[in-house]
Every structure is written in C-alpha cells, then in structure tokens.
Request: fold
Amino acid sequence: MKQQEIMLNTHINESIFEALSEEEIGDDHMFAGLNTPMKSDAFALSDFEKKEKISNLFAQIMDVMGLDLTNDSLKGTPNRVAKMYIDEIFSGLNPDNKPKISLFNNSYKYNQMLVEKNITFYSNCEHHFVPIIGKAHIAYVSSGKVIGISKINRIVQYYAKRPQVQERLTNQIAIELASILDTEDIAVIIDAKHLCVSSRGIKDESSATVTSYYGGVFNTPHKIVELQNYLSH
Ligand SMILES: [Zn+2]
Reply:
C-alpha cells in the first residue's frame, strides 16, 4: 500500500537528517515525514489562551527588534498576528478545524478520472515562516463514492494552513483523500512558489517547485498522460 511506502521513505529520510546542520535543513527544505511534527500536549491550551500567549511573545520579538509598541500603527500588531496564526493561517494544525466530509453514491456511474485543477492555496514554509503560494491539482477515480467538489478544495486548504514543506503537503492531501474516498486511485500535483526562495536566501524569483503523488491507477504511464492532458487545457 502507498501509505506504508511513504512511511518507509520517511524513516530513511529521518536518519539522513541527523547528519545535517540547522541551516542545511532549512535552506534546502528537507522533507522529514508524513505527519506534521506536533507535541503530545499540543492542545492543552485553548485557542483563547494560545492567542494571548502568542500576542505577548510576539510583542517581545517586536520589542527586541527595537520597535515602539506604543505607536498607534504598531500597538495592535501582536494581537492581530496571534489571531491570524490561530484562526487563519495555522488553523489547520487543529483537528477540530478539519472539514466535515460527506460522500455521495456514484449514481451517474461515472468511471473516469475527475480532475479538480488550479486550486489556489496559501501556506507557510515551516523553516522560515514565510508564504508558499501555489496551485493544487487533484484527480481521483471513484471506487463507488464521490466527494463534493468544494470539499476537495477544503481539504487542500486545511493542510495548507499549517507550517509546511511542499512534499508533506502533497502527501497529506493524497493520504486524506485516499482514506475518505476509500481508493488508492488518487493523484495530487502541487506547483508552488516559495517566498523564502524568491524574497530572501538565493533570491530566485522565477523558480517554482512541483511535487506529485500518483497512487493506484495513476501509476500507469497512460493515466499520467491523460491527467497531463486535462491539466494542459
Ligand atoms: Zn523556507
């Protein structure tokens, strides 16, 4: 099964990690595993408590940088950042925010691939906490159940709203869809721009990163060609 293969690769990657410095891991955006690394007590604090804490800590960061927190324009920033982290851009860390998905019977007997392409998402690089902006293209072949199209979009947004690396985002979306739709016939392609590459570091404005997951029938060359045809129109 594909999921086990990924777990296996993850294991190998983790051992490579021990030999790398912080800088090498961060600037090369190494991929450490399928699951977002979370502490066991990640949800001991309520969202309200988290926002209060983040606000205080962010105020300290601003203060250390020498910013005047009594300034009218700056004084609300720590609160705004805290609210944005918990309620918006990192809301996908909390399983309570996972979209509720209902499935329908495939009553039309549609048995070809369904492609949902150009799903815009905004994520954040977990190594630098700056944006990743991209498009996700999702395809699946129904095993008897179908999913509402907007729900595919919601799953992409849920996993994007975490500190991420693109490989993990790709695989998390694929594994989630495979589990919901009870099929391995899933493809996920992500084409994204990393601001940590374009606006700092190497400062390459034109490069984009493309990752893919091909499960089940999508591992066959003719299905990949068919999918590419859908995506190029
Ligand atoms: Zn980065």
